[in-house]
Amino acid sequence: MHPRDYLECEPGSRTSASTVERKTWGILLLVAAGVAVPMYRLTDWFGRKAIQVSVSFRPLRQADPGAALPVVVGLDQDYELSSLVVSEVAPGGPAAAGRVVWRLEKQGKGAATRGFLYGQPPEGLQPAAKTGAEPLKAGTTYRVEVAAGKIQGATVFQARGSEE
Predict the structure, then answer these.
(1) DSSP letter string over the chain?
(2) Which residues of 74-83 are buried (b: 16+ CB within 10 A; e: fewer)?
(3) What are the beta bridge partners of residue 71?
(4) How far apart are CA 119 and CA 142, in angstroms?
């Protein structure tokens, strides 16, 4: 029997045109699932975007002995930040818990930024409290959390002293 003959079968016979059509749709569905599932699992196209945060230290020549080096926080691309929190991480505790040493919130229209120096608010952010950033202590672990609307990012770092 030729494949074309299946389409010309009488209704009610074992292989009708609707059966062939169902098989075709079933195969197409399997192929689509075979492509979609790996794309979903192996790419980040459908996941939440996260801000990649990095920290670097800038040595100063006239730094006080034992004082923490200035910290530069870098972002993977330009973001208009809506909030920034730097908190102290308790030794042996979870990285998310700790005393806040610097909190900034959005005040009006800000400019996109790719990085900032600890203690100097990026444009458009203002301290949440009337006090500025507390000085960092060398050897203490801190967590930096940034947000730009619904996109967030964080990293943990240990402040370095000027003698390190």
Answers:
(1) --HHHHHTPPTTSSS-HHHHHHHHHHHHHHHHHHHHHHHHHH-SSSSPPB--EEEEE---TTPPTTBBPPEEEEEEEEE--SEEEEEEPPTTS-TT-S-EEEEEEE-S----EEEEETTSPPTTEEESSSS-PPPPBTT-EEEEEEEETTEEEEEEEEPPBTT-
(2) ebeeebbbbb
(3) 57
(4) 14
- pLDDT of 79-119, one tens digit each? 999 999 999 998 776 666 688 999 999 988 878 999 999 99
Q: What is the pLDDT of residues 42-84, one digit of tens each?
A: 887 776 788 999 999 988 666 566 678 899 999 999 999 999 9
Hey, what amino acid is at 61?
R
pTM: 0.69
Count CA atoms within 13 Å of residue 67 on its CB side: 13
Residues, the chain = 164
97 token code pair: 């818990």
